[in-house]
Amino acid sequence: MKSKLKLGFCFALCISVTLGFTTDRHSLVVSSTEPPKESSSEVAPNKEDVAPIVPKIYEMKVDTNVSNRFAKTSVVSKVKNLAKTPQEATFSVVLPETAYISGFVMEIDGKSYKAYVKEKEEAKQIYNEAVGRGQAAAHVEANARDSNRFTVSLNIEPQKKAVFTLTYEELLQRQNEQYEVVINIHPGQPVKDLNVEVHIDESRPLKFVKSPPLRTGNEISKNDDKTASLAEIKQNNSTSATVKFNPNIERQKQLATGLGTKEENGLAGQFVVQYDVERDPKGGEVLLKDGYFVHFFAPSEVEALPKQVIFVLDTSGSMDGNRIKQLKEAMNSILSELKKEDVFNIVEFSSIVKVWNVDKVQVDYEVGEDPWPLYDSPEAPQKNKTNQVLPPAYKATDENKEKAKKVVEKLNAYGGTDIKSALEVGLKLVKKNKENKEDAHQPIIVFLTDGEPTMGETNTEKITSAISEMNSGETRAPIFSLSFGDGADREFLQKISLKNLGFARHIYEAADASLQLQEFYKQISSPLLNNVNFKYVSNVTKLTKTVFPIYFRGSEIVVAGVAEDEFLPPSIEGNTLRGPIIWSPKVETPVGDLERLWAYLTIKQILEARDAAEKKEPYTKKALDIALKYSFVTPVSSLVVVKPNDTSAVDTEDASKTADRPYFLNRNYATPNLRPQLGLAGPSTLSFAAAAAGFGGAAPPMPQPAVQEADLEEDAYMSPEMFAPSTTDIPTTTKSQDLYEDIKNKLPWLKDIITVNGTITLPNGSYKISTNETQVTSTPQCPKTPINGTAGVCTLLPHCPQVFSLLTDAKVFQEFFCPLDTFVGVCCPIATDATSASAAIS
C-alpha cells in the first residue's frame, strides 16, 4: 500500500510490526540504559576472523495457550555467538495480521531488558534520529500473506548468548466452521531443539482438534503427505486438548523439501491447529467473569437466505493476461456454487460499465464512453443508450449458470477504470430487484478491482461518499471488495466496504489467485440472518458492536462488554428466511479471564471505525488509551525496547511482500555504502542466510551446504566458508510527487489520466511514470517517433522531453507510447542519449 512505503529500514537494533490494511503502522523505539563502552568490536580483525561466523540458534520454542477462543503465543529463541568478534543476531517473527504484540524481552549476558508500549508520536523523534545513524546490517528475504513481521537485531559479544522472547495475542476468527491457530516457523537453519505446543481450554466440549499438513504461507495448496505435521494430539478432557510438534533434524529437512525450500535452510512454513466447539445452535453462549462478559453467537439450525449476487468485475487493460484468465477460472467455479434459489447479475467495468443479459449472452446496458477511439474495443459500444433497460436478476438455474459461463468467457481486458459508475450500476440492480416488495433475496455486491479509479470520478473520498449515500434505506446492500494484486488501492477499498456493511480482502497475485477468489466466495455464500441486533437489559457498559447487517454460515459474531450489576441474559433479534426471530442465550463461567479479550476486541473495532471515519482523532485517542493500559502494540502505539549501548528504531513492513530482513553480519565486514532508503526495506549488499533467530512463513534464505546434526550443537563451530554472500541492486529513491507535478505542467492533458501515485491507464494496461532506468530490464526499438516518423528507441517518458511539444493530447501520445516493463515509455529518436540526466525531468 502506498502510504506504508516510508522508512522501512534501520540499523543496529530494530523492530518491525506490520498491519495489513491500516495506514498507521506499529513502530518501535529502542533506548539505552548504559553509557557506550569501548567494545571489542572496535578492535581490528585478526586473521582467524576475516569472515563472519554465523550465530547459532541452539533452542527454539513456541507456546500457544487458547482459552475462550483467545490465543496468547510466546516465541522464544536462544542464540549464541561462536565468533571471536561481535555479531549482529536477528530475531524475526511473522505473526498473524490480526494479532497484537503484548510483550518482548531480551536476555543479554544474564540481564533482562523488557520492552514497554508508548504513544506513537511520543516515540517519533527518537525514531527519526535513529534512522539516520546508519550502522551496517545484512538482509535476506522473508514473506507471508496476511501477516505482520516483527524483527529485532542486536550486537552479541564473542562467545556470549542472547535469549529473545516475544508474546502476541489474538482473538481467533471462526471461518468455514472452525478456528485456526497459525504459527509461522522460519528459523533459517535446522534447529536441534525445536518445540511447538498449542494448549486449548474451552468452556464447551471440543467437536474436533486436528493439525493439517504444514503450509508455505504464500499459496493455497492441497494436502500433501510430504508436509504432514505428524503432530501429537492429546485430548485432556472433553473441553481441553494439547497439540505438540517436535520435528527432529531429519524431519525438518523433509518438511523443508516438501514446502519447496532447501533442506539446509531448515523448516520454513506454517504449523496449523484447527478446532471447533459444540455450541447452542440458537442463542449462543455468554461467558461472565469478574464483571466482564463475552457473547459468542454462531447459530447453525437456520435455513440459508436466498441471495442476489451482483458480480462487479474489473476488466480494464491492467487485467489483461493471467489476471483475466484467473478471474474467469474463479468465476466458472463460483457460478457453479450458486444455489437454485439464488439470483445473480454480471457487471463488467473498464472505461465503460456493461451489464450483461445472461439469457441472450450479450450486453444490454452500458454507461460511459470509450476514450480510446484509436483502439478497437472488444465489445463495440451501443450507439443509442437513451432507451436502455437494466437487465433483471437471473435465476441460478443450471441453464442460466451455463449461459453465465459463456458471458465470462467473453470478458476482455481493455480500457480504464471507472469504479464509481460501476458501483452505482450495481446498486441500481439491487434497487430494481427490490421493486418486487415480496422479494426476499439478500443482496450482496462482490466488487473486484486490480487498480485505482482512472476514469469518471477519480477522487476516492468523493466516490466513497457518493456510493455510501446511494446505498441507503431498506435496499442497502453489503459491498465486499476484493483488491487483486499490488496495484489496487487497498485503503480505499477497505473504507468503502466498511461504510457499506461489508469488508475488504486482498487477492494475492500468484498461481493460486483463482483459489483465493473461490475461498473468499465460500465465506459469504450462505447468509443465514440479516439485521442481527443484540439487546442487553442489564446495566452493561463499554459494549463492543451490537448490530450486524448479516451473519454467514460457518462464521461467528462476538460481542463483549462490562456488566455493572447483576447480569441478565440478553436477547438476539434477527431476520431469517421464515421471518423475524428472537433468541436468548445461556450464561456460563469461562475457563479463564475475559478482560484482555474485551480490550483486544474493543481496540479492533475502534480502529475499524477510525478507518471509515473522516475525523480520526477521537477514535485514535480511545484506541490509544486502551492499548497503553493493556500493553498492546497497535497502529496508534509503539513498542519501546531498552538495551545496552545502543538506540535505534524502525517503522513497519508488510510481511506479505518479499522484503529484505536484517540477519547476521560481522561488523568487520560492515559495508560503507549501506544507508536508509525511502520506500524500501533497505539495501542488501552482503547477505549471510545461514541462521536467523526468527520465524516466518517466508521465502527461504540463501542456499547452504548440507548441515549435519553434529553441527547443530550449541558450541558447534560454523565455518564462514559455508555461507556465500549475495548482492542485490536497490532502486534509487526519487521525489515522486515533484516528478508527477512537473511532467503534468509540461504535458497538461496528462492530468486527466494520471493518478496521484503517477499511474496512467491505457487500453492495454496501467503503467507508472518513472525516471529510474535501473527498474527497466530492456529498452527495445520502436517503429516511429513523433519528431520525424522514423524508428527510435523506447525511452522512459521523462527522459525524452524533446518530443513533449508534439504530444498535444492523449490520442497523439497513444500513437508513440511503448511499454517499458510496468513503466510509461515513448518512442524517442535514437540520437537522443536516453540515459542523460540533463535531458530528463528531475
TrEMBL record:
Endpoints of the signal sequence: 1-20
Keyword Acyltransferase: no
SMART domains per record: VIT (SM00609), VWA (SM00327)
The keyword Signal belongs to this UniProt entry's keyword annotation: yes
Residue span, VIT domain: 41-170
GO cellular component: protein-containing complex
Keyword list, A-Z: Signal
Every VWFA domain range: 308-524
Protein name, entry field: Inter-alpha-trypsin inhibitor heavy chain H4-like Protein
Species this chain originates from: Tribolium castaneum
Gene encoding the protein: AUGUSTUS-3.0.2_14157
